[in-house]
Structures are given as C-alpha cells and as structure tokens.
Structure prediction request, 719 residues.
Amino acid sequence: MDKDMHINEIVLRGCAPTPLAAYLKALGVLRLVCEQVDATAKGWWQDECFMLRTRLDDNDLRRFFIEDYRPTPMLSPWNGGSGFYRKGNETAWSTLEKIITTQAERWRPFRDTAEVMADALEHLKLTEKPAELDKRALLARLRATLDDEFLPWLDAAVLLTDDKPDYPPLLGTGGNDGRLDFTSNYMQRLLEMFDPVTGKAQGDVGNKLESALFARPVPGMTALAIGQFSPGAAGGPNSSTGFDSGAQVNIWDYVLMLEGALLFAATATRRLESADPSALSYPFTVRPSGGGSGAVALGDERPARAEIWMPLWERPASLPELRVLLGEGRVTLNGRLPRDGLDFARAVAKLGTDRGVRAFQRYAFMMRSGKAYLATPLNRFHVHRNPKADLIDQLERGDWLRRFRRAARSTHAPARLQGLAHRLDDALFDLVRVADPRRVQEVLKVLGEVQFYLALSPSLREQVRPVPRLDAHWVEAARDDSHEFRVAAALAGLDDGLPMGVHLAPIDPVKRNVWAPESRLAVWGQGNLSDNLAQVLQRRLLTASRTDLNDKPLSGRCPADEGAVAAFLAGDADERRIAELMAGLACARLPARLPLRQRGASEASLPMIYALLKPLFVPDAQLREAGVLAPDGCLPLPPALPRLLRAGPAGVGRAVDLARRRRRASGLADAGWRLTPPYPDGGRLLAALMIPVEIRVIKGFIKRLADHKSDEPATQDAS
Prediction:
C-alpha cells in the first residue's frame, strides 16, 4: 500500500486532559498537523491521552516538528513587554530583533506580521506601551490591516467590544499574565529550539519533543515561567525535592500550548438581560462557582477570573469539526447562557451526548501563590442526560436561587450563610452528577437549613423569599424507602390548614412563599426531634382550639407504615436525619401517599401502649372511615395527655389511665386487658403518636385489641 494512503493512530501520551497546558498542547498538535502537513488528520481523547489519526507515522510526526514546522506569528504590540518597546524591556526587544532581522524562511510570517505592526505603531506615533484610548485605536488598525494568518492570535487574546478592549481569561490580559508576556516568552523558546539565522533545529530539541509528545523522560527541562497553565510546573514551596523550586518547563510544552490556545476565539454578543451594549463571550467559559469541588471555597470566587470547561470528545474529529465545536462553544440552560459553573453543570446534565463530547474537564482561574492566577483543575463532568437535575429549575421560581446565592456572596455575608450557600452548591453539583435519591435528599436537607436560617434574619428575609414550593417530583426523586424517609415524609405532610412548614419558619400558611414575621406558629428550635414535635403539637392544639376546629389537627399526606413507626419508637431510626429530611420535605408538595413497599415489620412490632393511645392522635374523620367510631362519634385528645407522656414513667402510667377513661367515654371498649411496665420513653412515644399512619394500620390496631384476651397481660413488646 502506498505510504501516503496508510492511516496511523498515534498515541500522544504527553497530551492529557490535565493540566491545562497538556490539554492545549494536544489541540496545538492537531491544528499544526492539519494546517501544515495533513489536512485529513483527526484527533480525539481516549484513556486520558490524545489520539492522532493521520497519514504520518511517529517518525514523520517528529520530522515535521523538527524540520518543517512554521511557528504561528504571535505578537502583542499592545503590551509593554512585547518586544516593540525597548525602554525597560531589553530582553524582549532583542528577542524580537533576532527574529525579524533574519532571512530564514521559518521566520517569514513573523517578519511580515511585525512589519505591519511597526507601521501601525508609527502611524499612531506610539513609542511606548499605549494608554487605553491608544490601545483601542491600535487594535482597530491591526484588525483592519493584518493578514488572516495573524487574526487567530488577536481573536484569542483580546476582543474589541463596543466600548473597550476585553480580555478572554485563557490568555490573561491580552496575552499577558502579570509581568509575563506570553508572546515574548514564546519567541524566546522558539529561539532556543531553532537557530535565529538558519531556522534549523538546534541542541536537544528532538529529545524534548519526545518528552512533550510521548511522555518519555529526558533531561534538560528549562527554567522558565509557564504562567497560569500548569500549576505543578510553576515552582514555589514544596514543588520539588527541596524546600523551594523554580519553574521547570519543557520548551515544546510551552510553544505547543500557545499554538493550541489559538483555537479559542472570543466573540462579542448582545446580552438581552443586560443594559450593556455588548459582552464578552468565550468558548465554554462562565463565572467561577465555589461549589462542586474541594479545591474551591466560596471566598475564592470573587478574586477568580473565570471558569472554563474543556470538552473531551471520543469520536475522531477533524480540525474543521473542532473549530465548529469550539466556535459554537456554547451550552444553554432553559434558553439562556449559563452564568457560572453550577449553571454549566446543569446545562451539561440537560444536554445529553452531543457531537461526541463525553465529558468536560473543569478548570478555574484561581488566585493562588500570592496574586498569581493558576488554571486549577477542579473535576470531571461526564455528559449524560440526568432528569433529576431538572428539579433544580424549580429553585429558580421567583429568581430564588440567584437571590439566595447573591446574598451569600455579598461582602458582609455572615460565615454561617456562606457555609450554607457552599453546601447547597456542593449538593446541587452532586445532584447534577449522580441520579441517586440520596443526592436529592442532601439538597432537601440543606434547603431545610436555609429556610430555618433565613427565618432568623429580618435583613435576609427582605432580600430572599422562602424556599419556593417544590412539587411532588422532588419527593419521588428523594424516596429511598428507608424508615427515616417514610417518617420524615409523614411528619412533613401534616396539614389541616396548618402545613408543617409554618412551624419551622414564619411563612404564610396559605401562600407559603411569603414571610409572615408576625406569625406565632414557628416553634421549631435547636432541640431534639421529640422535644420539637411536642412543641409543634402544643401549638397545633392551641391554634385548633382558638379557631374552633372540630377535629384533631393531626391529619396529613404521605402516612407512614407501621414498620417505619416501629423503628422510630424502638430507637432504630436516625432522629437527626429524620429532622433534616422533614425540614426539606416541608418545602415540597407531598403526594397523597407513597407507594407501598414490602413490609419489613408487622403490626405486632409496635407495643400495645401505642395501639391503645394512637386512636386519640388520629382525626375523628379517619377513625370513622376505619370503623372505629360511629358516624356521629368523636374521640377528643385530652389536653393533659401529651404533658403526662413527657413527665417520666409515672406520667406515662397516668396517661394510660387517662386514655382508657377517654376511650370508654367515647364508646371504645378495651376488653379489660391491662398494660404492664416498663413503658417506652414517653417523649419518644409522644413523637411516634404524632406520625400519621395508614388507615389499614389503624384497623389492624382495633382488631388486635379486640382479639386480646381479657386475662392476658399486655406487655409492651408482645402481641
């Protein structure tokens, strides 16, 4: 077969998704090969490295870069350290002079480009770094006069918007990172690789190429600054075997990295939601978000430049296809551009697989090591459709999510509020990544805490409304059939016109998304679950008596099964988790019931004292439905009974006697059976009695009591 027709797949192990320098290097290799030697070449990501499909073999690829590679002219006369201004920048000046005064063919694009730039500087009479107005005029003239060969660098480094130059984050501030000018550094590296007079390769440039492309260890790393692109190579404390180290970089890594960055070009877009005439748009770039990664804190967002999500595709893509992908470079979330990292993650979860993109490597340009910016790798987001991520849309009702996150990121936000916002971001990121009920539960738990915290601050209530009313899809998505979830859902479903949420925070019981600071219904505090439920019961009974409610205010949606109640009463359920889940579920619209599960416990697992007392905590309408009461019968809850249950073992005994008398007065017989100590803990028993249960459970109690022999002691753990 003719060699030119043979297709090779070259594994570039030196080109990996992280750090950012290695990612850009892969793109640089593909771009240069396609533009200068093999237009049919394609590339993709596989097993954490870049694959190149080309007519070239390994040796051809080496030969191309050593002998034929023509460096792209990257020059930045708008920067003081670019080499166009001699004063104070002798090294940059002499580097540029060496390149533009040689006649070697390899440097011809540099010579031609520098000549046009020098004419522009002379036309504008610029002899030193231009001021802002002069910079704008210079950029406009360069765009009008430069050849197309240079424009990719200009578009990637700086964007001339309607009012001022703007700078994409990938290349710092117009190809400049602090005092490090990328283009001057780039030219210095090129002169180390190629003779300035002949343009031929020199020194050990071949060995360094082996390392850059194939990750083969070779000596001879160069002490140079790589800027923000490779934090591990930037030097500093603990970066080497000693206490400190300078930056150590392969010169090919630096050169190919910048060659790859040329594929990222910014554009000016009209932003409908803003009064600004135009705004900077950059491929897959958003504002930084402190959540979703242990490497970033909420306080890191303000000084950070941006967050960029680099696509990883698994199907071979040609350079034109890659240009389309990066040129579009946009994902949308509910018809708008993502604002920050969380928005981008949500958009990815809605996107599904598109154009072969299987994942995004997330980077944030964070301020580290003093005031230097480093492209910090955060985490990897795999592209898949996750319907549970759609639930987050409901948090945007009334602009709630944005308002809350903005309040938490204000200059004087309390540390507690910042912590809650960071936890919410983390929980939302986890929900986007993994479609698992526990992830949904974590979001609900944090939302419950947020609601409680907002309720304590009048100033925050002015900025942020209560958590939006979530629909029943949240409940279904969070359901894991654990005892804790069943109990929490049953308690959160307490209503009777007094939704459980009004006891957790002062919200309007009708509108539910409006604060009601004058409300006296919010009684939930920092105590344990049983104590708080006792306070809730007292408030509900008091409110019912004042409003002439004819029935006990203890009905609700999502009743629990006997197994869940038995586990709670026996102390086999996590009370803290129940309380946290209940607070979150109280923000949602509970379904009428949860699907039945395979029963893991029978009615017999509940003690007889519970069977005796429970009808007193069930609305009369349900007792009539269960056949416990006559159509016109009633079974009031004696006001003293809850207090007696919390008064220790003796109080529990008196509560049993009171319950018997009340039952007999309502026509409920007890067949003469007796209860014997020890009794369950009264506080926990009271909390268990408040949990709404299914009608079939109530019917089971009645049958159980009727079948019990009158001369048989009714112990607390036997039927």
About this structure: Confidence is low (pLDDT under 50) at residues 235-246, 270-278, 600-604, 710-719. The chain has 27 helices and 18 strands. The longest helix spans residues 415-433.
